[in-house]
Every structure is written in structure tokens, then in C-alpha cells.
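A quick aside before the break. I want you to see a complete sequence-to-structure record at least once, exactly as it would be stored in a machine-readable document. Don't worry about memorizing anything.
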Amino acid sequence: MATAQQPAAHTLSRGVQPLRAGQGSTFLWHKLHSLLGIVPIGAFLLEHLLSNFEALHGPAAYGAQVKFLNSLPLVRVLEWVFIFLPILYHGLYGVWIWLRSKSNIVYYPWAGNWMYTAQRYTGLIAFLYIGQHVIRQRFMGVQLPEHPYAAFAKVQQELANPWMLAVYIIAMIAICWHFAYGVWLFAAKWGITPGKTARKRFGYVCAALGVGLAIMGLWSIWAFVGPKYKNTPENVVPAHSAFISSFTRSGTEG
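That is the input. The structure line, written in C-alpha cells, reads:
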């Protein structure tokens, strides 16, 4: 008499335990990674884009903004605690998450999977770009904390290289995309936008945010490479100093 063969029991291969809300340290590290992407990194991105926008008003205005930022109390402490260390953690932990995951856009080419993959690649581009940007602009060449009015010329000289200009443009678009989609993910993961309808509507808001920030960033880049402020000298004279010098000279001649 034939007997029915029992199907083999499905066994799970050893690996990482599923992440459950409120359980394990991994959950806390994920939450910290998500939060740091908004505050302080996202806040710093907005401030940085607004500061760079001053380049449209000329080298003196841009230098004045750099001088103001470097005159803030405990600026070096703020720099490390709220900029360098959060970016370092967010970037390295993001790479670690990426290495642990597996892309499935070939088998499941849904929009969400493409967005997830794009988020990983744009994050890597942003991390590498920020690293070289900080090294070149903050720690190499003219020291901008001591010579803030040389900032415009320093950036302009770097962007005179077509390859670096291409890097800046690609990185600007990648960073704005990464942040905008990161805001959408943050709202979804933290329960701010419950339900498909809320997430869909907020998606349009985040898309508009990303496009707006990218336009701001690219417009600022144009200020450095456009003809209006071409060949800016490193020793830009502040606007108030130029006014005083002109007033003194006119008084002497009179």
C-alpha cells in the first residue's frame, strides 16, 4: 500500500534575525541613522545651500557669509558634533545596510525597488563627494576660517576643471534626490504619513522639494562658473571696507 510522502519541512537558513519594532540594538541604530539624516544632516544641507546661494550676490557677499559662519561661538565643536560625526555615521551605516541587503529590481522591477536602489547609489555618491569636498575646501589650500573672502576664488578655481564641475553637478543632483526621498522614507517609517494616500501625497511634496533644492544648488554653481564673476581674485575686498576706502580717498582728494 502506497503511503503519501510528507513534504520536507521548510527550514530557514541561518542569518540575521528579523528586525522587530522596539527589539534589539539594531532597531535603535536604524532609528538613529534615519533621524540623523533629517537632523542635523538635513538641516545642515538646507543651511549650506542657502549659504552657497549668496554666491549669486558676488564674491564679497559669499565671503561675508563664510566669515559669519566661522565666527559662530564654538564653531569647531559644532562642526564636529553636528556635521562631521553625524555624516560619518550616517554614511558608513548606510553602506553597511546596503551590503547586508540584496537588490531585487531584476525579479521585482517595482517602483519601490528602483527607488530603494537609487537611494543607495545616491547615498554612496553623496558620501564620497562630501568626503573629498571637505578635505579639499576645508583642510587643503587657503584656510577659509582665517581667509573667508578667499572662499569664492577657491571654489571657482576648483570648478575651472571640467571634470570637477561634472562631479559637482552630479553630486548636487544626487544629494538633493537622496535627501528628498529620505524625508519621504522618514515620514513613512516614523508613522507621520500613515496609509497609501498620505504617502502618495507627501511623495509629491518631497519631489517638489528635491527639484527645488537641486535648482538652488545648480544655480549657485553657475555663479562660480558664469561670466559675471569670472577670474575673481583671492583677496576680495569686503563691501564695507571698499566703501570706507573710497570715502577716505574722496575726502583726501577734496
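Two observations worth writing down. Confidence is low (pLDDT under 50) at residues 9-23, 241-252. Residues 113 and 150 are 44 Å apart (CA to CA). We'll return to this after the break.
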